[in-house]
Specification:
Elements lengths: L5 H4 L4 H5 L5 H14 L7 E5 L5 H8 L3 E6 L2 H13 L4 E5 L11 E6 L10 H14 E12 L1 H7 L3 E6 L2 E10 L2 E10 L2 E10 L3 H11 L2 E6 L14 E7 L1
The structure holds S-adenosylmethionine (SAM).
The site of S-adenosylmethionine has 20 residues, from strand 2.
């Protein structure tokens, strides 16, 4: 497993094909739950940490919030920029590794959605992302972390799946090892075969809560899915935490 796998995989065209169900309508549900549960002023400053193709940033910018959106993938950032331009939306897109991102701005709300956390090898580096969020928030600002529920994943891991998407045959092999969930994605398209990897640290809810509280956040609300269901360790697919500085 390449330790910085995320630099390659998210920069491919195939990423958006494999995760095509993670679309704007999915993002609408996320934003509905978030805006229904945080208190931010109209025209607030929002940072999307790891914005991908910009699906959340664009919905938020349409609502007249001031958006900064950071991502490491040049490909995804340029798709996001194009989508914003098509709608004449002003979004400050930044192509950067979140570890290196610096600004004098402070934000009312920071979002980190769809498992954009836990990619690094060491907990120190992973927790530094939470610290960065804390540092970049105004007093009383909100941070939303959307991660998988590790306990649920352990019980419900689908070890193999295959599908045909966008003319590509996609085989995904998943396993849990050394407290990480890894996925090998094998794509065959027009006779060409390519292989990618994902590897994410499986944080338990307690580990995330401890890390977040040690940094100084209060846990404001916790949900188990984007319908707003209560978090249940065994049955919730997601761990969605709304944290307050
Ligand atoms: C699973 S995707 C989620 C994207 C977006 N939040 C969404 O919901 O569509 C994870 C994103 O994290 C970005 N990413 C990974 N490592 C990063 C890093 N070190 N700094 C900034 N972005 C990173 C990837 O490029 C990718 O866009």
């Amino acid at each position: 497993m390449k330790s910085e796998w995320f630099k390659d995989w998210f920069n491919t065209q195939e990423y958006l094909n494999v995760y095509q169900h993670r679309n704007e309508s999915d993002a609408e549900d996320h934003i509905k739950l978030i805006l229904g549960n945080v208190k931010i002023p109209s025209g607030a400053k929002i940072l999307d940490m790891a914005c991908g193709a910009g699906r959340h940033a664009i919905i938020l910018a349409r609502k007249n919030f001031h958006l900064t959106a950071v991502d490491l993938s040049e490909n995804l950032i340029s798709i996001a920029e194009q989508s914003a331009q098509n709608e004449n939306l002003k979004i400050n897109f930044v192509h950067s590794d979140i570890r290196k991102y610096e600004t004098n701005d402070k934000f009312d709300l920071i979002i980190n959605l769809f498992t954009s956390f836990g990619y690094f090898e060491s907990d120190e580096e992973n927790y530094a992302v939470l610290q960065k969020a804390y540092h970049l928030l105004v007093e009383n600002g909100f941070f939303v972390l959307d991660f998988f529920n590790s306990e649920f994943l352990r019980q419900n891991l689908v070890e193999f799946s295959e599908e045909n998407l966008g003319g590509a045959e996609i085989h995904q092999y998943r396993k849990i090892k050394n407290n990480r969930v890894t996925k090998k994605i094998v794509i065959t398209k027009n006779g060409n075969l390519s292989t990618y990897e994902e590897s994410v640290r499986m944080f338990s809810k307690d580990e995330i809560v401890n890390a977040i509280q040690n940094i100084g956040f209060d846990i404001y609300k916790t949900f188990g899915d984007f319908l707003g269901s209560e978090f249940d360790k065994l049955s919730s697919p997601r761990l969605i935490m709304i944290c307050k500085k």
